[in-house]
Amino acid sequence: MKKLKSRIINYRILSSAIFLLILGIASYVEAQNQESQLSQLELDIWNDPAFQKEFIESYKAETEIEPRVTSEERDKMQKVLALISSGQMDKAAKLIEKSRGEAGNALYDFMLANIFFQQEKLDQAAEIYEIAVEKYPKFRRAWRNLGLIYVRNSEFAKALPALTRVIELGGNDSLTYGLLGFAYSSVENYLSAETAFRMAILLDPKTLDWKMGLARSLFKQESFSQAVALCGRLIDDQPDQADLWLLQANAFLGLNRPLKAAENYELVDRLGKSTVESLNMLGDIYINEELYEMAVHSYIRAIEKNPKNNVDRAIRAAKVLTARGAVKETRQLIESIKTLHGGQLGTEEQKDLLKLQARLAVAEGSGDEEARVLEEIVALDPLDGEALILLGQHSNRSGNSEKAVFYYERAASIEKHEADAKVRHAQLLVGTGKYNEALPLLRRAQLLKPRDDVQKYLEQVEQVAKTR
């Protein structure tokens, strides 16, 4: 009776509040403009059938978030719990199975799913949790555990509605919000992830994972300044946390502050927690800043960190160093790659290094060394058109035009390099005054691979040929 009176009183208070609210709104509208109307958006909201249904249901008391049990069901569950407590999981599962059925209590399903969860039978557990929430849609614990399984199985798209349902049912705990943030991040919805992580931090400000998640979501949204600031605060508390230094370094790169990022990468290395990727990134920064010696040192450390890792990044860096004229540093890097990797290099990697050595020989004016290296490449791969063309150029510079033509013709027989080989051959012929012989080669090259510079050269050769 007391409960009934209390409900009546609450209802009267609610009715009075609603009346005063309506009165206040009416007075405000009248004061503003007697003839003004609600905006179309507001009308849509109030007239929405779904909203009206939800509002009518708000008069009802909130349904419990746990299925109700009878005395008989409670007794069975106590027996099951006793078996679980004694470690007899299989017996407990069999006892529950006898009581389950299409019309059985959802708590039976929940307990069986929990047993499977503990036994790491995650797929079976998920199926039964789904049955439980289908029977009892407001079963919050079942939704929560279902969400946990989906996260563990990396089924993030499925985890989102389950975890969201937990929150809708009042499960506003930090773990649920944190996992929701993680799931949103995993499906690249970083704005929602940010909101979820902020809620997790609000409820649990001590857990680093939620703060890291927030920092990453800010970074992914390109809010680099906020990410840098947040990482800075976290680093003050956790100076040995390498992930924080690395994340802040990436944010510094986003702000176009590469040398600040380099400081972070160096600090991570001093902590003994650098990775092949972080050291390679450090090398890239130093190359862009023209600090070539420091760049090479970083790439070598990356190779030393994991000698079995592929050296594509280091070889690419060596090519950049060569193009920038850093001969000494390129040679140092090449020698380190060969020393540390030895016989692990593949054919393509060996060819790349040999080509780099050939370019270094040209830069140092060592033609004989260049030819030796190029011949080694061709011996390794007779169909390397680039090496054949380079050998042709070397032979032409050395005054052996017949040998140069031989190499150009070999290169032209390889479809991928035909156009470039014919252009080089044509240039040799033009150099010896054989303009008419050069024209068919240039026209064929343009047919295969049209280029503006080759077209202009072709036109110039045609004009000279007409005057001869």
Defining traits:
468 residues; Serine Threonine Protein Phosphatase 5, Tetratricopeptide repeat
Our estimate of the beta-strand percent is under 5%
Biggest beta sheet attributes: none
- How many whole angstroms does the radius of gyration measure? 37 Å
Spell the H/E element sequence: HHHHHHHHHHHHHHHHHHHHHHHHHH
Mean pLDDT: 81
CATH superfamily of the domain at 74-171: Tetratricopeptide repeat domain
Distance between the termini: 120 Å
Supply the helix-strand structural class.
mainly alpha
What's the CATH class of the domain at 74-171, please? Mainly Alpha
Low-confidence stretches: 1-43
Helix content class: over 70%
Tally of helical segments: 26
* Overall form: elongated
CATH architectural grouping of the domain at 74-171: Alpha Horseshoe
Give an overview in words:
This protein is mainly alpha-helical and 468 residues long. It contains 26 helices and no strands. Mean pLDDT is 81; it is low at 1-43. The longest helix is centred in the first third of the chain and has 31 residues, at 2-32. The chain is elongated and about 110 Å long. Among the domains are: 74-171, Alpha Horseshoe (Serine Threonine Protein Phosphatase 5, Tetratricopeptide repeat); 384-468, Tetratricopeptide repeat domain (Serine Threonine Protein Phosphatase 5, Tetratricopeptide repeat), CATH 1.25.40.
